[in-house]
Automatic annotation (TrEMBL):
Substrate binds at residues 113, 262-263. Keywords: Cytoplasm, Lipid biosynthesis, Lipid metabolism, NAD, NADP, Nucleotide-binding, Oxidoreductase, Phospholipid biosynthesis, Phospholipid metabolism. This is Glycerol-3-phosphate dehydrogenase [NAD(P)+]. InterPro entries: 6-PGluconate_DH-like_C_sf, 6PGD_dom2, G3P_DH_NAD-dep, G3P_DH_NAD-dep_C, G3P_DH_NAD-dep_N, NAD(P)-bd_dom_sf. It holds the Pfam family NAD_Gly3P_dh_C. It comes from Microcella daejeonensis. Gene3D superfamilies: N-(1-d-carboxylethyl)-l-norvaline Dehydrogenase, domain 2 (1.10.1040.10), NAD(P)-binding Rossmann-like Domain (3.40.50.720). Transmembrane segments: none annotated.
Length: 340
């Protein structure tokens, strides 16, 4: 492509929603020749011909070295890195479609934050399971990454995690530019669960916001929520310090505080009295937290982890708890004073 170095990295990004398009922009702005897969042909044509994705990133100009296509074979041909940004519950079916055409030996990177219903598997586990590739080829990206802010080139940071430090570094180098900085770690479990669990806490904060509670309530939910997600992640093998980093606390703050957060928005609608089905109907995009509540609570029960905030979000979703009752019980089910 015009203006690119002859040895520019060739990258494929699957999924042209707000986050997939934004991350493709990050990669293109870092100098990569980036091709985005869009399920709908008209979206692919708009991105390639007008450098816009008006459905998901209205008003944002996309770089000329970012193209799109609706055929997976075209997008994946010659790719040196592959990034996945599809709804977590449809990941497996998407992987099944590409397992024979993913270029061999290239990093496969998850941009998704969720666990699979039915199996409780993290996204990196679904990728390894369905593609049959070595975990050292798999990386995950997480952090305080609200798509529209990044698309506007507002500075932020993320963390890239992989069982292979070399893979994490290769992905981080590709995903670093003047407004987006990628750090690395090898705690895939903590990085992924941080990205999943913060969505659930963001739904709780949104519920409190929708009810009309103020900053004290929301700060209490965020703080106690960090305790819950740390206990959960450590029980599954994560490092506690990861939960105080970009994938844990950083992402938690951004997702809980921003009106751009889909999970916060979903919670706010629930707090305003809308039923779960009405919230889904109003949301143009997937709020991963809503579909992860059940699987996370099942996993928590398996390891004996108590998660009162997440459990109460589940009750609100089921319609068995008045949203106004969520905050007063947020720390414990017992009236006895508990250690922090």
């Amino acid at each position: 492509m015009e203006g690119l170095a002859p040895d520019a990295l060739r990258i494929a990004v699957l999924g042209a929603g707000s986050w997939g398009t934004t991350f493709a922009k990050v990669l293109a702005d870092a100098g990569a020749q980036t091709t985005l897969w869009a399920r709908r042909r008209e979206v692919a044509q708009e991105i390639t011909e007008t450098h816009r994705n008006s459905d998901y990133l209205p008003g944002i100009n996309l770089p000329p070295n970012l193209r799109a296509h609706d055929r997976l074979e075209r997008v994946l041909a010659g790719a040196q890195q592959v990034y996945l940004s599809v709804p977590s519950q449809s990941l497996r079916s998407n992987l099944h479609s590409i397992r024979d055409i993913v270029p061999p030996d290239v990093p496969v990177v998850s941009l998704m934050k969720g666990v699979e219903r039915g199996t409780g598997l993290r996204m990196s586990e679904v990728i390894a399971n369905e593609l049959g590739i070595d975990v050292e080829r798999i990386a995950v990206v997480s952090g305080p990454n609200l798509a529209l802010e990044i698309a506007k080139k507002q500075p932020t940071a993320a963390v890239v995690a992989s069982a292979s430090h070399a893979t994490a570094v290769a992905v981080a180098q590709a995903a670093t530019n003047e407004y987006f900085r990628s750090f690395v770690n090898t705690d895939v479990i903590g990085t992924e669960f941080g990205g999943v669990l913060k969505n659930l806490i963001a739904v709780a904060v949104g519920i409190a916001d929708g009810v009309g509670y103020g900053e004290n309530t929301k700060a209490s939910i965020i703080t106690r929520g960090l305790v819950e997600l740390t206990h959960f992640a450590v029980a599954y093998g994560a490092q506690a310090e990861t939960m105080s980093g970009l994938a844990g606390l950083g992402d938690l703050i951004a997702t809980c505080e921003s009106k751009l957060s889909r999970n916060n928005t979903a919670g706010r609608l629930l707090g305003q009295g809308y039923a779960f089905t009405e919230v889904i109907a109003q949301m143009n995009q997937t709020a991963e937290g809503l579909s992860s509540v059940g699987p996370i609570l099942e996993l928590a029960e398996q390891r004996g982890v108590h998660m009162p905030i997440v459990a109460q979000v589940a009750q609100v979703l089921e319609g068995t708890l008045d949203p106004r009752e969520l905050a007063p019980h947020l720390a414990t089910d017992s009236d006895e004073p508990q250690g922090e």
